[in-house]
TrEMBL record:
<feature type="transmembrane region" description="Helical">
    <location>
        <begin position="70"/>
        <end position="94"/>
    </location>
</feature>
<feature type="domain" description="Cation efflux protein transmembrane">
    <location>
        <begin position="3"/>
        <end position="205"/>
    </location>
</feature>
<keyword id="KW-0472">Membrane</keyword>
<dbReference type="GO" id="GO:0016020">
    <property type="term" value="C:membrane"/>
</dbReference>
<keyword id="KW-0732">Signal</keyword>
<dbReference type="InterPro" id="IPR058533">
    <property type="entry name" value="Cation_efflux_TM"/>
</dbReference>
<feature type="transmembrane region" description="Helical">
    <location>
        <begin position="156"/>
        <end position="175"/>
    </location>
</feature>
<feature type="signal peptide">
    <location>
        <begin position="1"/>
        <end position="33"/>
    </location>
</feature>
<feature type="transmembrane region" description="Helical">
    <location>
        <begin position="187"/>
        <end position="205"/>
    </location>
</feature>
<dbReference type="InterPro" id="IPR040177">
    <property type="entry name" value="SLC30A9"/>
</dbReference>
<dbReference type="GO" id="GO:0006829">
    <property type="term" value="P:zinc ion transport"/>
</dbReference>
<protein>
    <submittedName>
        <fullName>Putative membrane transport protein</fullName>
    </submittedName>
</protein>
<dbReference type="InterPro" id="IPR027469">
    <property type="entry name" value="Cation_efflux_TMD_sf"/>
</dbReference>
<keyword id="KW-0813">Transport</keyword>
<keyword id="KW-0812">Transmembrane</keyword>
<dbReference type="GO" id="GO:0008324">
    <property type="term" value="F:monoatomic cation transmembrane transporter activity"/>
</dbReference>
<dbReference type="Pfam" id="PF01545">
    <property type="entry name" value="Cation_efflux"/>
</dbReference>
Length: 302
């Protein structure tokens, strides 16, 4: 739902900015129009990521398709960099060398104000969702956005935040051009927007890279899972625990445990399989693999 709201907001804002850019000739407005069209295109990648990563696992993909979300989100981040950042900087440099006055600045300020309201609404929706998740995990909203495995949520928050800052930069560039008479301020606004988009794109690319190569869970989640395993009536102790993200809010769990009692080998195997299925019934555990601990291994503390 967050992605759909952001997509609709970006389409509306992109159309308004494009019209304003044509009417005013502002370099900052051209950069902002390119920014919004790039964001709209990126939301399509995010929608594809959500849909394809949600497919159920099969015999050929025993860990599911969750990591595909990071592939499509990587495409979206690269799109921000090429279609948004590079274009805005290059256009700003061109206008810096050949500055032209902004016509009808009132149109530009009106569109920027309306865009700020629309983008602000989308950003607020994304932040509310992030804050809700942060409270559930006992962390801050910023920390959750940076560390969450939900790449779509992080992308929407980052893109909307960049959009709001970009609008302020565009408005400042046009305003300084009007009060100084120097059109280079407008060109500078375009370049600032480009640099901002570049930074956001690089952060998103890096976060997707980390999850593609295999990111472990946060210490808080590891402690929660470990305590849940230790508290299970059929588990005596836990000596090894590995939790790795294999998709948005989906974990691959590998653990070594000692079971209560001293049942025959076949009964233990059945018991382990039942415990694995019980763990996989949890909404965030995609796959669980349990094995017996070696007797001389120390128990883990959580």
């Amino acid at each position: 739902m967050t992605v759909v709201i952001a997509f609709i907001a970006n389409i509306l804002v992109a159309i308004a900015k494009s019209v304003a850019a044509l009417l005013t000739g502002s370099a900052s407005m051209v950069a902002e129009a390119a920014h919004s069209w790039a964001d709209a295109g990126n939301e399509i990648f995010l929608l594809i990521a959500d849909r394809r990563s949600a497919r159920p696992k099969d015999s050929r993909h025993p860990l599911g398709f969750g990591r595909e979300a990071y592939v499509w989100s990587m495409f979206a981040a690269v799109g921000i960099f090429t279609a948004g950042a590079v274009f805005s900087i290059m256009h700003g440099l061109q206008e810096l060398n050949n500055p032209a006055p902004v016509e009808s600045p009132g149109i530009a300020f009106t569109v920027l104000g309306l865009a700020f309201l629309i983008e602000g609404s989308s950003f607020t929706q994304a932040v509310v969702q992030a804050r809700r998740k942060a409270r559930a995990q006992g962390t801050s909203t910023l920390d959750l956005v940076l560390r969450t495995s939900n790449t779509t949520l992080r992308a929407v928050v980052a893109e909307d935040f960049a959009a709001l800052v970009g609008l302020v930069a565009a408005g400042a560039g046009i305003y300084l051009h009007q009060i100084t008479g120097d059109a280079r301020w407008d060109a500078a606004g375009s370049m600032v927007i480009g640099v901002l988009l570049g930074v956001v794109a690089l952060v998103l690319i890096d976060r997707n890279r980390l999850f593609l190569i295999g990111a472990s869970s946060t210490p808080e989640i590891r402690a929660q899972v470990g305590l849940a395993l230790q508290g299970h009536e059929e588990i005596e102790r836990v000596t090894y625990l590995h939790l790795e993200y294999i998709g948005p809010d989906r974990l691959f769990l590998v653990a070594e445990v000692d079971l209560v009692g001293n049942d025959p080998e076949e009964d233990v195997a059945r018991q382990m399989r039942r415990l694995e299925r019980e763990l996989e019934a949890h909404e965030v555990i995609e796959t669980a693999v349990l094995s017996l601990s070696v007797s001389d291994e120390a128990s883990l503390e959580f």
